Amino acid sequence: MSQAVISKNPYVFEVRDLNIFYDDFKAVTDVNLKIERNKITAIIGPSGCGKSTLLRAFNRMNELVPGTRVEGEVLFDSQNLYAPDVDPIEVRYRIGMVFQKPNPFPKSIYENVAWGARIHGYQGDMDELVERSLRSAALWDEVKDKLDQSGLSLSGGQQQRLCIARAIAVEPEVILMDEPASALDPIATLKIEELMQELKKDYTIAVVTHNMQQAARVSDYTAMMMLTGDSRAGTVIEYTDTKVIFTMPKDKRTEDYVTGRFG
Amino acid sequence: MPRKTFEHEIQKIKDDVLVLGSMVEQAILDSVEALKTRDIEAARRIYTGDQLVNAKRFEIENAIMIAIATQQPMAHDLRLLASMMEIISELERMGDYAKGIAKINILMGEQPLLKPLIDLPRMAEKDVDMLHRALTAFIHEDVETARTIPQEDDEVDALYNQIYRELMTFVIQDPKAIERANWLLWAAHNLERVADRVTNICERAIFVATGELKEIDVSDDELIAP
Amino acid sequence: MFNKRKPSQVPHDAEKDAFQPHLHSRHRAGRVWLLVFQVSTLIGIVALSALLYNVANAAFGYAAIENKVDPASLSINGIPLEQLHPLDLTYILQEHVSEGLFRKFAREKPMEEYSREEIYDLVMRWVVQPQVVETWTLFDSLAHRDEIMRQAAEKYPQARIFFRSWLTSQFLTTPQSSKPEFAGVRTAILGSLWTILITLLFAFPVGVGAAIYLEEYTIDTPLNRIIQTNINNLAGVPSIIYGILGLAIFVRLLEPLTSGALFGYVKDATTANGRTILSAGLTLGLLILPLIIINAQEAIRAVPGSLRQASLGLGATRWQTIWHHVLPSALPGILTGAILAVSRAVGETAPLVVVGASTFITFDPDGPFSKFTTLPIQIYQWTARPQAEFRNIAAAAILVLLALLLTLNASAVLLRNRFSRRL
What we know:
The complex is a heterotrimer. By secondary structure, chain A is of the alpha/beta class. Chain A has helices at 51-57, 88-94, 109-119, 126-136, 140-143, 156-169, 186-199, 212-218, 242-247, 252-258; strands at 11-22, 25-36, 40-44, 68-76, 79-80, 95-98, 174-178, 204-208, 221-228, 233-241. Chain A is built from ten helices and ten strands. In chain A, the strands form two sheets. Chain A has a six-stranded mixed beta sheet, sandwiched between helices. Chain A has a four-stranded antiparallel beta sheet with strand order 2-1-4-5, with helices on one face. The radius of gyration of chain A is 18 Å and the shape is globular. Chain B has a single domain, classed as Up-down Bundle (Methane Monooxygenase Hydroxylase, Chain G, domain 1), CATH 1.20.58.220. Chain C is mainly alpha-helical. Chain C folds into two domains: 59-165, no CATH class; 186-422, Orthogonal Bundle (MetI-like fold). Chain C has a three-stranded antiparallel beta sheet, sandwiched between helices. The radius of gyration of chain C is 31 Å and the shape is extended. The relative contact order of chain C is 0.11. At the A-C interface, helix 2, helix 3 and helix 6 of A face helix 15 and helix 16 of C.
């Protein structure tokens, strides 16, 4: 997995027959989907349908939970992330993540951004990297005069953008976002959504969201997940252009979900 | 988890669309009847009555906007509301055609009819019948019916052609009759347009049910006059 | 009284009756419980006051002191003893003490190198020999001053009667002595400090390390649950058990190590054994290890999981996550827990008696292989003496111990605040 093999493959991820288990409990079953480069792909679905579990399979965050087991393949640039010789540390370095609750480190704003790059042995101009990352996260103008203040002194929306700056400072190819705006007020949410549109020029984004309007606003493609079968494991029941999902979904369950008549 | 409030709101809007529809149907029938009997008083009532149609249309439009703003409709709900927005505008135009016929009646003043009206009331009845079934198909999302109704436009076109030819013979006989022939031709033209607009309503009915939004192919090739 | 809003459906009378607010009795029950809590607090305050009163009562008060030799009789040419030249003092000393004792002083260092104060102290101690003949408690001293004066003048016409604090700077800086007037707690304080140092050096890294392992690396298996339960139980084991353990392991089994023989650090081969500061420190370390582990575990557990996820999500290793994020966040809690655990170790007596703290020792401990005594041991030993004066100095030593504990606790608070602010 070296940086050199950036292929022309239009798909960043290709998920094949993915099953995810927590001990004996099957959480996600038979997922097959491709995630396109420089697009925003949203994963929606009711609570507990395995959206976050699927998202975390993309950078192997699932295995931090003891007892998690993954079957199937997640190809990233044609390389299976779950092959035995793949180091999860490198996976997470190439595929960044932004979490539901803003979780900046209890360090200065500067350190929040610089830390990730530093542990990965960044040799370049750190000040320049910090500024570039904060600018990319549309936060620079708000914090440039207080870089030495604690990241926790910022507002919730600013904290989340700091977390995005922190993620892009290590120059990943993909940013996974797990309900990035669910803890934020509407204005901060819209800022994050605007930012996502900017970011997709340089990154591929996969976002889990509870907020259907948000998925409709920001994403290019939408995967609808739902518990299915006797095992009640989550799977993708419909995956297509976002416009189609929200105007004329094929699947009745998707229709019921997006029109708010689920269950 | 049905959305009772929202569904109630949608039902109310649907009912209002049907009310608007029957107002327009009545206006079309009445305007032709008034023309047939040369009842200018009735024509004046129809002419001013169009304001009620317009007011109803604005009322429904407002209700749809509120539903969109407050309920964030998606998928089927969104298609339904968007389509109803379109349909009320079609209905309002049809109301304007009825108003146009009433205006012709008023403008004709004391002049007698060029000929007794036979095909024009038949056209009006056909229009109203098509409109009524189209709205029913829309409400019931009856795709089959919605697909067949536009075919019947041919009948209306045929009647229009017939009226046109007939009036032409009157004009050839007596060129001074041209003005009175023109009055009737306009009225026929209005009724022909109504049928075309019914086709648009059928397109919306199919769209709501299937999500498929395309022109129903009904060529006006048979028309011998605009 | 509020009127309850009328429900849309008026309930049947039976339903209405189903609610019986009993507001009066509910408020009364609340007041009774409040009273119970207030009384509990009051009992605590009374107990603490009684303790402090008891200690202060013995640590301060009137004392009657008789001199064996009247200092006035030692004055030369009318110059009082306090103002005499060192040479004169040396002369007086030589005159009054035995030749052997004087040679002993001279052996320690040449007489001319003694400062004036030192010689004065020697004269006071060996020539004047003041002796406490009776002491009165602080309460009596304040309440029955005249009575005491009268009584003392009657019984001890020779004695000087004055109000004294048994806790003096001299008390803190002089070593142990068999005479209460001259006894101090210097060796005990140093012994305590050395022991704490060893205890901390052993228990802190081991305890924090174990806590990190248990919290950050292990997963929930039956074996780990057994280990965890045992650690929790060990925290409740009586300290004397640890003393016996320390005696068996550190004093006996690891004697070459704890006596310093292994490192060639033996001053006197004939008396060298495992009963050293090192053994005591390690024993106390074992004693507080479960406390430190549990406290550190709790502090580590309190670090939000989102912080770990943020770090791991950036591609940090588990160790980088622990070192850069988990430990800095948990540090205030870990330090507070450790210092509170040390406070407990400072006050321990039983295990040290078993391990073999010396009860009488006059030289300062100078390293981990020294013989030692500690403050609680000293207090314990003094309170066991029959002479009343020892109870006074025991009380003074208790005050010293309390001050030491308060200092430790205060530093715990300061450290916590300091590290919390940094975050």
